[in-house]
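Minutes, project huddle
Topic: does the predicted pose make sense with iron/sulfur cluster bound?
PN asked that the exact inputs be recorded in the minutes so nobody has to dig through chat later. Recorded below.
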Amino acid sequence: MAKDKKLVLSGNCNGCGICVTVCPTNTKLSKEEDFDINTAKLAIAVNNGIAFVNYDACIACGLCTRNCPVGTLAMVPV
Ligand code: SF4
Ligand code: SF4
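Predicted holo structure (tokens), as shared on screen:
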């Protein structure tokens, strides 16, 4: 997938974790036999109540932006 867009977060994340569960990159990782939530290179994760993006793993599919209940996530052109 061409990364002509980038996922950005605004400041109103409530840490619900929905984005973490809907992310296809995270789902793929979670199916690996040696999956460890603490060490996996998740594309998006919640840490200390705030979501953060791992741009090395995020494929910029935008799925999480359509599932965030408070509109924190958005895709922007790069
Ligand atoms: S844009 Fe896609 S790959 Fe990136 S964090 Fe969101 S759901 Fe995961
Ligand atoms: S970015 Fe949205 S979906 Fe993800 S944890 Fe924050 S509020 Fe929940």
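Observations noted during the meeting:
- Residues 28 and 42 are 10 Å apart (CA to CA).
- The pocket of iron/sulfur cluster (ligand 1) is lined by residues 7, 23, 25, 43-44, 53, 58-64 (CB under 6 Å).
No decisions taken; revisit at the next huddle.
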